[in-house]
TrEMBL record:
Keyword RNA-binding appears in the UniProt entry: no
GO MF annotation list: K63-linked deubiquitinase activity; metal ion binding; metal-dependent deubiquitinase activity
Cofactor: Zn(2+)
Species of provenance: Adineta ricciae (Rotifer)
Protein name: MPN domain-containing protein
Segments passing through the bilayer: none
UniProt keywords, alphabetically: Hydrolase, Metal-binding, Metalloprotease, Protease, Ubl conjugation pathway, Zinc
Family: Belongs to the peptidase M67C family.
Gene Ontology CC: endosome; membrane
SMART domains reported for this sequence: JAB_MPN
Residue span, MPN domain: 218-348
One Gene Ontology biological process: protein K63-linked deubiquitination
């Protein structure tokens, strides 16, 4: 294998670490939320590992490691107050599983990417463009328009470079044995980009799975979710104030998530914003009822249903912790309900490396978010509203 192919492969892995693996931390979210929700990352990483979906698995193990080794440590005020049990449990998972597997997968991916690079050199005289997302390569393989059409920019990173973080963990935890070569190919996707459009009042969405990240579990949404949420939002809506809530539910038979609750936290809102308060009450409710957080819902009292730049940043951590997590936006004025997900190939890397706050512009071509294709409304399911504002 040539030196240039190895170099290119290492750059692709580095791109993943910098663009797909940092879960942004909100200091107002109780740290227990991250400890609890991150269990899902490991379960999903294990699932992808066992099914030989190495790239996805690598991303999720790396998210887990980065979350605890860097992000929470650096950005959450309660990091030092975490219970010894939680701290030791996470340390053990990183030491015995997340880190060794991430290292193993990294080697496999470098072999795979180097092979891709060699193949590409043979089949094309085009220069290899960097930084390169592996997802883009997949799109290219199914897209006749060529790679330039899906090339994305890589915004500067606000954090310190990540190329040392695995090495830090290695130093702190374990030594990794050599690995065999990769035998399995990455999951292919043939889904083309979908422009965000709106779903008029709960028209069922039953599109096929996949959002560029491989297979998604289905997300089942109670059919009465819009009606119920509009009822609790009514007082705010009348005054043109947004209302937000958290979607909670459970994972059913390994194939789907089911939303069963909306937990409405104490909050303060305006015409185009909503800030949660006392999030610990919400986290406590979700935890004591053995629910998991599956996304969020909010109203746009004066506007159509879309995700603003602030909404995109709000949504990112939900989807990085659970790939299937969704953002539901309801516009009572325009009679729209839409369910959105960030695109894995552009939305996640661009938003996770954007350091701007407040309302701001993002490049949006290819789209940063799309109508979620993995959701289904269930008319037999009733949504329970838990209103913590009283
Ligand atoms: Zn919004
Ligand atoms: Zn941004």
């Amino acid at each position: 294998m040539s030196e240039s192919s190895i170099k290119s492969a290492r750059e692709r892995v580095q791109w993943l670490l910098e663009n797909q693996c940092r879960i942004p931390i909100r200091s107002t979210t109780p740290i227990s939320f991250y400890y609890k929700t991150s269990d899902n990352l490991i379960e999903e990483a294990d699932h992808f590992y066992k099914t030989n979906q190495f790239e996805q698995s690598f991303i999720l193990y790396s998210r887990y490691i980065t979350l605890f080794v860097e992000e929470l440590k650096q950005h959450h005020p309660d990091f030092l107050n975490v219970s010894v049990n939680d701290r030791e449990r996470v340390k053990e998972i990183i030491r015995t599983k997340a880190f060794p597997r991430a290292e193993e997968l990294k080697s496999k991916l470098i072999d795979k990417y180097a092979q891709d690079y060699g193949d590409q050199q043979v089949h094309s005289r085009e220069n290899f463009i960097k930084p390169k997302s592996p997802f883009l390569l997949r799109q290219k393989s199914t897209n006749e328009h060529g790679e330039d059409k899906v090339k994305i920019s890589a915004p500067g990173l606000g954090h310190a470079p990540t190329n040392t973080h695995h090495e830090q963990v290695r130093a702190n935890y374990v030594q990794i044995p050599a690995v065999e070569t990769m035998e399995n190919h990455l999951v292919q996707t043939n889904q083309e980009s979908i422009k965000p459009t709106y779903d008029r009042w709960q028209k069922p969405i039953t599109n096929s799975l996949s959002n560029g990240m491989g297979s998604f579990r289905r997300m089942t949404v109670p059919n009465d979710i819009t009606t119920k949420f509009l009822q609790v939002a009514q007082r705010n809506t009348d005054r043109s104030i947004e209302t937000c809530g958290i979607l909670a539910g459970y994972r059913k038979d390994n194939q789907q998530y089911v939303i069963t609750h909306i937990v409405v936290p104490k909050q303060s809102g305006g015409p185009d914003s909503c800030n949660t308060e006392k999030e610990e009450e919400m986290v406590e409710y979700i935890s004591t009822h053995n629910l998991i957080t599956l996304g969020w819902i909010h109203t746009h009292p004066t506007q159509t249903a879309f995700l603003s730049s602030v909404d995109l940043h709000t949504h990112l951590p939900y989807q990085m912790l659970i790939e299937e997590a969704i953002a539901i936006v309801i516009s009572p004025k325009f009679h729209e309900t839409a369910i959105f997900s960030l695109t894995s190939n552009t939305g996640i890397p661009i938003i996770s490396t954007c350091r701007k706050t407040g309302f701001h512009e993002h490049a949006n071509n290819p789209p940063l978010y799309v109508i979620s294709s993995h959701t289904t409304y269930d008319i037999g399911l009733q949504c329970k509203i838990v209103d913590l504002r009283a």
